[in-house]
Amino acid sequence: MAKKRIGSRTVKLENGPVIISTSSIVGPKEAQGPLKDYFDIKLDDDLYGEKSWEFAESKMVQTVVEHAVKKANKTIKDVNYMVAGDLLNQLLSTSFAARAVSIPFLGVYGACSTMAQSLSIGSMLIDGGFADLVAASTSSHYCTAERQFRFPLELGNQKPMTAQWTVTGSGCSLLSSQGNGPKVKYITIGKVIDEGITDANNMGAAMAPAAVDTIYSYFNDTKDDPNSFDMIATGDLGKVGMQIAIDLLKEKGIDISKVYTDCGVEIFDLENQDVHCGGSGCGCSASVFNGYIYKMLKDKKFNKVMLVSTGALLSPTSTLQKESIPSVAHAVIIANE
Amino acid sequence: MAKKRIGSRTVKLENGPVIISTSSIVGPKEAQGPLKDYFDIKLDDDLYGEKSWEFAESKMVQTVVEHAVKKANKTIKDVNYMVAGDLLNQLLSTSFAARAVSIPFLGVYGACSTMAQSLSIGSMLIDGGFADLVAASTSSHYCTAERQFRFPLELGNQKPMTAQWTVTGSGCSLLSSQGNGPKVKYITIGKVIDEGITDANNMGAAMAPAAVDTIYSYFNDTKDDPNSFDMIATGDLGKVGMQIAIDLLKEKGIDISKVYTDCGVEIFDLENQDVHCGGSGCGCSASVFNGYIYKMLKDKKFNKVMLVSTGALLSPTSTLQKESIPSVAHAVIIANE
């Protein structure tokens, strides 16, 4: 068996790629939420000076990559790979940001699981000796996602209470083979799981089984203790999906309830911000991880966390063709020494 | 510098991941082309028994993954990762194929550069000690791509002579840490290059500078000799882009003309199959590499090849927003011992 594999699905990173810096940017609504003090850049205007929301989102990606590099006292030329993607068709915002920064580019798509996916691939490229510095990034924008996946905003459509609110935000982690900071220790890559949910306004229920499969695999492979974590954070299951994840894991004999939260539940004030079940979108776990969680690790308020970004891999085309929602979740375990 | 890096952009794979098997599948038109004897599976009907072209494409992906695994006398459970993507929004065909095969899944998007991208990531995961067996795959389908990127086929739109024909095809390479077969030796990951071309019916001209940037970087990093290759094959620049690539590389002092071809030019009979500048689509370099090139390596008719799949990262949305076409190309060097 490959020397870094543990159990059936998990890998152990022997050299512990270091997250030497992060950057996060959010839109006006997210900047009013409970995590507002943790984000690096808060936009007053979700057009960000651009001619369209798509290119505003692209500028957000470019901004966090450049900002994370600058915070680490590095230059763009030092970065060996940009591993990144977003929710838009053909990764529009990421592709154009990659053009702007001119870093060798590996585009990834995992819907809202992208932050954990780009962190995973980036970490393995460093741990495997292929890179010294990797920028792992993703983004989403309420206005671009809504018009692509659901309806033009101008229609003013109502959503059911199980729906989530796509976060306008982006985040970048700068992974390094050297330096100081929290280290990526283990990675469990998810399988595509589909329990037959067809309601695109209930993504939490669709994605929860994928999160459960990945979290269970990690604990089964490593025999680690859930309570050794300061936080286990799913990407964005929202309020409904979060409870499903807790229940399904308890049925499998794993109780994460003491340390568990969801980025989609953390980023908004669910009582007062009219976001129904919470935040969603690649930018949700990206901004919560690179804003809040990373800083808690860096300040030694957290010692060990698991980020499990979750993605729903449906497309409007597959939905029209009456298919249910395939989902995926990847787990990244990050700890201080 | 990370121990496997050479020069500014290239990595050397010390453990030489082995391509132990491949599988290729093509549609009826490709099955009448010059490479027809090299493809494993040739479809009479491009719906492949499914209810839509999208799910026909998805079944093609599933078929080549399962077929490559079977040819190597392995089982699906032995495969640690599926690294794959396609041209469709949200990687529709790949996501649903990943659901069917249930292999831990890393979705990638690089437009028509995807075969080289999935081979690159898969090879680094094996060489880095994270996996024993990786399925690297991609696909495209004339009917799904045309209606997503251009016009519904029913309209019968005409194309200019610079346009290319999207290949209906899929291919999978099964990468292994052990076994016999050609090995992946070097990888050069591309930057996103955009020289301002805005004509989506002239993708070859848009993508050629990206191919040139990557090929030049490889030779600059390694000081390798172009004529040491039996074949350097770009992904799908077509007839026009191919000539541009030769000319631009000559200007930079590198002459690849003796060993150079393009998968888009090879897969069709350009004189008689009415495909204008040649084939395109992720499935083009996927079927040509996994069908023709791999077999030439396996039979020792080729000893050393470079696959440079090229991708145009435009989206219909960015085109409507008057943006030019960003492109990317990745180079994978494969050789017998």
Automatic annotation (TrEMBL), chains A, B:
SUPFAM superfamilies assigned: Thiolase-like
Gene3D superfamilies assigned to the protein according to its UniProt record, in alphabetical order: Stage V sporulation protein AD (3.40.47.40)
Domain of life the protein comes from: Bacteria
Protein name, as recorded: Stage V sporulation protein AD
Organism of derivation: Paraclostridium tenue
Gene name linked to the record: spoVAD
